Amino acid sequence: MDSVGPNIDAIHEPFQRSERSPEDEMISSYLRNRSEVYGDLVKVQDDGWKNPEAEAFFRGQRHRADNATQKIRKVFYKMMRNIGAELNAASDGALELRNSNPWVLDLCMAPGGYTAAVLDRNRDASVCALTLPQHLGGHRIIHPKDTGLQVMFEDITMLYKEFGLTDIPQDHPNLLKFSDKRWWYGKEFDLIFCDGQALRTHEPNIGVYGRQVEALRLNVSQLILAMQRMKRGGTLIMLLHHMDSYETIKILRVFDEIARIQLFKPLLSHMNRSSFYLIAKNVEPGHLEAVVAVNEWKKVWKDLTFPVLDEDGQALPPKIASEPEVVGEVSDLLDTLGERIIELGEPIWQIQKEALATANWTRRKEAMDSEQDGTVEASAAAIAVHASEEDLDNVGDADDMETAPVLGKASKPPAEGPVDSADMSVAMQSLDIDS
């Protein structure tokens, strides 16, 4: 559930054709009828789904992600650090914290590139981080030398007291994996990252929850903890997927009410996939809409974490609303927010559409006699990312620590120098960071 790494198969594939919910189908139909950009993206996705080269490419990407080397992780650490710089430039300095001695919380931190991007700009910042332990499938932490971090190794989805419960049923199959910790309880943070993803390497520990619900459990877990630690007027940055999904739009609706939001899709990565970042500034955690949302997220977490089991021990889906209720809820949402979603979404869809339309498999399909090497993502990243081998070596590993002291000296900004293009090409295809 760390911020970089392999994802559960098919949940966020760019050419996903898994069964969509009735809510998502309604939203997609609405958007196709009103946004030419979205309609064009859907057509490109359909073409990709039919192309065996595209399917083979992403299958290979998943395989390499599960077997990534430490060298590739270092390359990605630097790339994420530079994505942080790109995000900061695109958001009028979201990472440049105005007050002295700011506090930052990085949820699902590993490998640590976004923390480093914050420290590059805030030498007096104190950083706390929560990340999945390696023995549960998490990634190793890379951090600048001579800095301190307060890092806790936990599965964020198992912090039951944080989510409103007082105890766990003794017969729960994952009883021993729950934690009663409430990290940094009472502390308020100026900036919070929610950058977690459901990892394939974490799958053996999912237990009764199932592949299709783990991503939602992770999202609501991050949101609950973040909103219960957010300083009034602070900033939240969250990785999201699929702007045409009901669950994503509900999150955007909440933050559009309680904060000043913008969406960001980096050009160093994420281009050919559905992923993007929500940047919410001036967050009001005490706003009625925020309080209602946190309570709803707690209910979702509880329903997904304690499912009703059938006679074979398989989790039954949570009770869902009737079709008329679903239609009414989605219709109301689109009536009030539909145009806003198109306004926010079209720049994101345009980037993804262009990346998919010019991907290797598309070019080969259109011109079989013109072989192209690499991908749009790899070539863009190789041009844009500056992380010399010397600078990559100037990092240390902290994966064997249980905690570290509160942050002291901040890291130096990354040294200039091009990444080896072969390393970057391998890295871009090896860690499925945003799928």
UniProtKB/TrEMBL annotation:
Start-end of Acidic residues biased regions: 390-402
Gene Ontology MF terms in the entry: methyltransferase activity
Gene3D superfamilies: Vaccinia Virus protein VP39
Domain Ribosomal RNA methyltransferase FtsJ: 100-282
GO biological process: methylation
Biased composition regions of type Basic and acidic residues, renumbered to the chain: 10-23
Residue ranges, annotated region (Disordered): 1-23, 390-435
Pfam families: FtsJ
Name assigned to this protein: Ribosomal RNA methyltransferase FtsJ domain-containing protein
UniProt organism field: Imshaugia aleurites
Organism taxonomic ancestry: Eukaryota, Fungi, Dikarya, Ascomycota, Pezizomycotina
